[in-house]
From TrEMBL:
Keyword entries, A-Z: Membrane, Polyamine biosynthesis, Transferase, Transmembrane, Transmembrane helix
Residue ranges of the TM segments: 37-59, 71-88, 103-129, 141-162, 174-197, 218-236, 242-262, 278-295, 332-351, 357-374, 386-404, 416-435, 442-461
Lineage: Bacteria, Pseudomonadati, Pseudomonadota, Gammaproteobacteria, Legionellales
PANTHER family linked to this entry: THERMOSPERMINE SYNTHASE ACAULIS5
Name the record gives this protein: Polyamine aminopropyltransferase
Top-rank lineage group of the source organism: Bacteria
Length: 725
């Protein structure tokens, strides 16, 4: 009976812990612009609470009797009930000094005590169970695998069952009710363990000594996959979309690796995975060394998650093989949680401050390889080990000077097929890395590092001069100069976010990059009114302001202060100097700030918001569009830039247009062979108007029909799978 109570308690605690993670992050995401960093900071908080919980168990096990520990624990548990129910309605971002600290503060005020109790449960129950006379009490680590099964149920159930079925607020109430059931199960487990432990105490086993070197190894083996988990999640959500599905898939794979590694009879043996790991790394290495972002989203997800699984399995398999006996159980979990917390802290808070680019994925990748078990009797490094990294480096340097130096900025100018040669030599380098992986982790890691250094510091386009690079909570911004076309252009992550030809008068010239469809719409609206009020979500370089007249009032809403700084620097871009927006620039989330404007204030609202290539989902929901409609005049319109490599929002907007009784029009811009232009996709939503319909037809905009099946997004649920290209 005691085993059943313990299994139920640890499963419920893990279920609650991993259900609240995507739930809380989804609730906070719209407050901070829908950027991927919100999830990383949430992960830092949850890992910090796990560390605090494990440290609490370690201390109370050492200094408290069972009776005193149980009493103290239930006092805290009773206090945690005072924070229920946990609801996320009408929360506002605090006016803090840094968005990451604001996220941490909101989580602390909402979840601190319940999450602390949940975080203590797995090691506490295992420690109590280990003191009983149950036949399995000698090796209670199997309860860790059982707790991870509850975690998997919560993670995989969230995007496919709980989120679409309940919605955000109802799911919060469900979580609060389940937490109360969990506290009752915890009480019964304590009673059962006490009864058995005092009636038939287990025979004490001799304790083994744990050295500091072993503790550091535990920490590194938990640090590396935790850091890699957050890095691969950020990599995918930056270019696809920050949504719960792409949060929980890597985390579920991470937990699956834990379950397999710590189970009594693992379905994948550690020795087999160590031997075959390199096969899982072929495609991730090709993608990372060639900086490939244009593959279909499902392929990118599959390639990177398969590599993540293989790297995590080897690290966690080593961790399981090096676990101590049960006398050091709580200490082992403490060091494991320290490593996990440090991995999260490095990725979530330190890396954005230390690096001006996203390099932590590559660092964690190399560290996981470095922690592979070496062959028996193999030295750490030999003189001959220099030759393979040098050979790979020479191939890539040759690739750079003979091929990349002659490769133009745009594929249309690649008349000699240089792209194919670049890909071929990179793939040869990857093959050499894979063939040279066996039993020499340091040499394997050095080979991979050479590939990554090439990808990061020898850019595929050598014609560009880097003028600006910075990173903050909202992403990485780079400004390049291309003398071939006399062009400055802004890159947000991996995506072009605006450009300007130097020494040209910007107003009323050809629209830059993807703004070609905006210019005729601006002229059309200007025919009817002497002055327009235009609200624009997303600043970029500010180039869109030059598509309107000097007497029009243009209001920008931008969440990233670095983007504002770049757009206001005349040595980089002069749009805001030459075409100053009369309405100014408001810093903060566009949807929150638009909600503060008067009703029927704008003649048009333009949604042009991206984080790298990802489009913030909270700006494309039914509630968001209803808000935009309240802010435009009866003859106004809402215009969306939906240009994305991975997400097709035509079906989403067409469905919402039908639900809200709106007219919907789409336009795909395919400019001529011109480096100043870029293809783009746009959608306009407006109230039914026969005159507007005729105007759209004259401008070659296509009327959109409702798709089959419909694809409606709300604040509670956004189905990304049906929107993938």
């Amino acid at each position: 009976m005691v085993l059943a109570y313990c299994l139920i308690t640890v499963t419920l605690s893990s279920f609650l812990l991993f259900l609240i993670q995507p739930l809380a992050a989804k609730a906070l995401l719209p407050l901070f612009g829908g950027v991927p960093s919100v999830w990383n900071v949430c992960m830092v908080f949850f890992q910090g609470m796990l560390l605090l919980g494990y440290f609490y168990v370690y201390l109370t096990e050492r200094f408290f009797t069972f009776q005193r520990q149980r009493l103290f624990h239930f006092v805290i548990g009773a206090l945690s009930l005072s924070m229920l129910p946990i609801l996320w309605k009408d929360i506002q971002p605090p006016a803090g000094i840094h968005p990451a600290l604001d996220v941490l503060w909101l989580l602390l005020t909402k979840l601190a005590l319940p999450l602390f109790i949940i975080s203590t449960t797995a090691p506490l129950i295992q420690s109590w169970f280990a003191k009983t006379s149950h036949p399995h009490a000698r090796d209670p680590y199997f309860l860790y695998s059982a707790s991870n099964l509850g975690s998997l149920l919560a993670l995989l159930g969230f995007p496919f069952l709980f989120e679409p079925l309940f919605g955000l607020q109802h799911l919060s109430r469900f979580w609060s009710a389940t937490y109360m059931v969990f506290t009752a199960a915890l009480l019964f487990s304590a009673i059962q363990c006490k009864g058995i432990a005092f009636s038939t105490p287990a025979t004490a086993a001799p304790q083994t000594r744990v050295h500091w070197r072993q503790r550091m190894h535990w920490t590194l083996l938990s640090f590396a996959p935790a850091s890699l988990l957050m890095a691969v999640t950020q990599y995918l959500t930056t270019d696809i979309m920050a949504v719960p599905l792409l949060w929980v898939l890597p985390l579920a794979i991470y937990l699956l690796a834990f379950i397999i590694a710590f189970s009594r009879h693992p379905v994948i043996r550690h020795t087999w995975m160590t031997k075959e790991q390199a096969l899982f790394l072929i495609f991730p290495l090709i993608c990372l060394s060639r900086e490939i972002f244009t593959l279909p989203a499902w392929l990118l997800i599959m390639f990177h998650l398969s590599g993540f699984f293989a790297l995590s399995m080897v690290c966690l398999g080593e961790l399981s093989a090096r676990r101590p006996d049960k006398s050091h159980l709580t200490e082992f979990y403490l060091w494991l949680s320290i490593g996990g917390f440090l991995g999260g802290l490095f990725n979530g808070l330190l890396a954005p401050q230390i690096f001006n680019g996203i390099y932590e994925y590559h660092l964690a990748f190399c560290l996981c390889i470095l922690l592979r078990p070496a062959g028996t009797g193999q030295p750490l490094w030999r003189r001959s080990d220099y030759w393979m990294p040098l050979a790979i480096g020479m191939i890539l340097i040759l690739n750079y000077f003979l091929i990349v130096k002659n490769y133009s900025l745009y594929p249309a100018y690649d008349r000699f097929g240089f792209t194919r040669w670049i890909d071929l030599l990179v793939m040869i380098s990857v093959v050499l890395v894979i063939l040279d992986h066996d039993q020499r982790p340091l040499r394997f890691a050095a080979n991979v590092a050479v590939l990554f250094i090439y990808a990061q510091f020898l850019p595929a386009v050598s014609h560009n001069t880097l003028l600006w690079q910075s990173r903050n909570f909202f992403g990485v911004s780079r400004v390049y100069n291309n003398p071939e076309f006399n062009l400055h252009f802004l890159m947000s992550g991996t995506t072009l976010h605006g450009a300007q030809r130097i020494n040209l008068q910007p107003r009323f010239t050809r629209a830059a990059t993807y703004y070609q469809p905006v210019q005729p719409i601006a002229r059309l609206l200007g025919q009817e009114k002497p002055s327009l009020r235009i609200g624009i979500a997303g600043l970029g370089t500010g180039g869109i302001s030059c598509q309107f007249r000097a007497r029009d009032q243009v209001y920008f809403y931008e969440i990233d202060p670095v983007v504002v700084q770049i757009a206001r620097t005349p040595s980089l871009f002069t749009y805001l100097r030459d075409c100053p927006p009369q309405g100014g620039i408001t810093l903060g989330d566009a949807r929150l700030n638009l909600a503060k404007t008067p009703a029927r204030y704008f003649d048009a609202i333009i949604i042009d918001v991206f984080s790298s290539d990802a489009i913030p989902a909270h700006l494309f929901t039914r509630e968001a569009i209803s808000l935009y409609l309240q802010k435009i005049t009866p003859d106004g319109l809402v215009m969306f830039n939906i240009s994305s490599r991975h997400i097709n929002l035509y079906a989403v907007l067409a469905t919402l247009a039908q639900e809200l009784n709106l007219q919907a029009y789409s336009y795909h811009s395919t400019p001529a062979d011109d480096a100043f232009q870029a293809p783009s996709d746009w959608v306009i939503l407006a109230y039914p108007d026969a005159r507007l319909q005729q105007w759209m037809a004259n401008l070659h905009w296509k009327k959109m029909d409702a798709p089959r099946p419909p694809l409606s997004w709300t604040d509670d649920y956004s189905n990304i799978l049906q929107a993938l290209k």
